[in-house]
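Sample entry (92 residues):
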Amino acid sequence: MKTIKWLGVLSFLGGLVLVGFQGIASIMDEGQTFYNHTLASVFGHDAFAWIENFPVAFLRSYLDSLVTAPLYIVLLGAGVLLLVINGLFAKS
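Predicted structure, serialized as tokens:
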């Protein structure tokens, strides 16, 4: 479980760093707005074309919202989820 803990910590810190750098960028430039990067904008929309052919409708809508959610929310959520899983299943 040591790997899951470190993946959770790195994911959580990555989300915090992303929010921090975007906040600093929006403070430094008055015309700059807080731009939300998504998985689709990072990897391209073509990388997630398989979601449209997913057979289960409620999972398809969940995956679509996950891909279009802001990247910092995805990273923070994945970090918290992995840390909770580590906390539940780690050996004392």
